[in-house]
Every structure is written in C-alpha cells, then in structure tokens.
Design brief:
With 97 residues, the protein is mostly helical. The chain has 3 helices and no strands. The longest helix is centred in the last third of the chain and has 28 residues. The protein is elongated, with a radius of gyration of 18 Å. The termini are far apart.
Length: 97
C-alpha cells in the first residue's frame, strides 16, 4: 500500500517555527530566573515566570542587567499571542478566515 509523500504546507512550517520560538523565549526567561536565584521550574509554573521576571526587574540594582531583564520580559509577554498565532498556522485554522 503506497501512500503519496506527505508535504508540509508553508503555514504549518511557519507555525512550527513560531511555536519553537515561543518555547525558546520561555526557557530564556527560566535561565534568567535561575541565574538571579529566583524560583523556576523547567516543566511547569510557566505563568509564575511572568511574576518572577517582574520581581527580578524591580529588585535589580545594576542598570545593564535590569535592561536585559526588561528585554526578556518583553519577549516573554509576547509569547501567549505568538503561541496562539503559531498554533493557528500549525493547525491551519488561519485558512478558514
């Protein structure tokens, strides 16, 4: 029984890339929290990371480090929207619009 070769739609590839990017951003935030000694969990408590990054920024004295944490926070805050967009592309929901 021969099946035709499976071809990925460009939208599926874009969706997979965006989802991968969101995970990379989330784990970048976890590494920043680990480096600063804040609580983190590799596989859970993802929403707690938002609170911990904000706390790390407010307690940071070094302006250069504070700027880095603010960039991480900005990227982290973008991930929920990006993840939904990536999932829409991945599951081809966007083709219905």
């Amino acid at each position: 029984m021969n099946h035709p070769p499976f071809e990925y739609s460009p939208l599926v590839i874009v969706g997979m890339f965006v989802i991968f990017l969101c995970n990379a951003i989330g784990y970048r935030a976890k590494f920043a929290l680990k480096k600063k000694g804040y609580p983190y969990s590799w596989f859970s408590h993802h929403f707690r990371d938002f609170k911990m990054i904000a706390q790390a920024i407010s307690e940071e004295k070094n302006e250069e480090e504070k700027a880095k944490l603010k960039k991480v926070r900005l990227m982290l805050y973008s991930t929920p929207v990006l993840f939904i967009i990536g999932a829409a592309f991945f599951f081809r929901v966007s083709q219905q619009f």
